[in-house]
Amino acid sequence: MELLLAGAVALATPPVAVAAPAPRAHCAVTDDDLGELSGMVVDGAGVVAVADSGRRVELHLLGDALAGDDCAITDTRTVDVDPYDAEDLARGPDGAVWVADTGDNARRRDTVAVIVVPADGEARLHRLSYPDGPHDAEALLVDPQGRPVVVTKQVGSAGVYRTAAPPDGVGPTPLELVGTIALPPSSTQGGPIGGLGSRTVTGAAASADGRVVALRSYTDAWLYPAPDGDPVAALLGTGAPVQVPLPGEPQGEAIAFTPAGDLVSGSETRDGEPGEIRVVVGAAGLAAAVPPPRGTAPAPAPTPDPAPDVVAEEDDGVPSPGLPAALGGAVVVGVLLAGIVAMSLPRRRR
Description:
By secondary structure, the protein is mainly beta. The chain has one domain: Neuraminidase (6 Propeller). Helix content is about 10%, strand content about 35%. The protein contains 4 helices and 20 strands. An 8-stranded mixed sheet has the order 6-7-8-9-13-12-11-10. α1 packs antiparallel against α4. The longest helix has 20 residues, at about 325-345. The two termini are about 25 Å apart. The relative contact order is 0.17. Residues about 1-10, about 295-315 and about 320-350 have low confidence and may be disordered. Keywords: Membrane, Signal, Transmembrane, Transmembrane helix. InterPro entries: Quinoprot_gluc/sorb_DH_b-prop (IPR011041).
């Protein structure tokens, strides 16, 4: 009975009701090199962006994206590494940019990779391996110890993976499943796949001080307080997230924080509709102001969802229609609860 109840409450943490400012559009992304914009970080120079296509890692600087109405590429740094499917960017504790070569729409890769690009010097490639088979993932964080945190793109219950130590060398370094997370339901409209898109993790970011962690879907950003700077504790703890709606993006996958705590979002171009760079002013402060509940502790790592990542075989990485893991989990939970109620009721004599 206790096990059934424990499984039943393994649902998304209800969000905190906070009125987030509406995103403000800064510029349209019309450059062909960023037609598949998928990851961003922000520093004093501007927005650094990566697209999930190409045979080389190219970090594009959009120096005027936040200062005016121009999303033009002002500089490009090319890293001589041939990625399989680069999906996200994150900032390491030493300021290096980490590229998440973790895309795997067909779920057939033996290893994924992160590429660490310091401000000066050669880039470093680190291959990673999952403990439970291939996954598609578009969200990367880096903890204060320099360990990559990968969140998969399963619809509903996404896996949270981290290495036991900072990766050293080409590897592969084993990833460990440290927990699963489900985004709360949302009525925000947008994205390429309707309601399923609001439960699909397409990007991640951490504030400059590490005290706020964001996961995004095709329709929203969810901000999790991280008072000790640990992204895993923030995602798997009992603190409630703050919802920041990002409506109307064609295929929103990129997210970042400015040094001042503003949230920056970006979208791919889809069906001829260009993506935009948009900003939600002061977003990090919304989550940082939410006090965590007393006795908050990271949840133990549950058994991963046996359902595979619900994604299409096409290169765009958009989940295919069908029964998502979230819906399947809800049905299972409903059946379990119904069984619990039935066992508690007196039996009728026949």
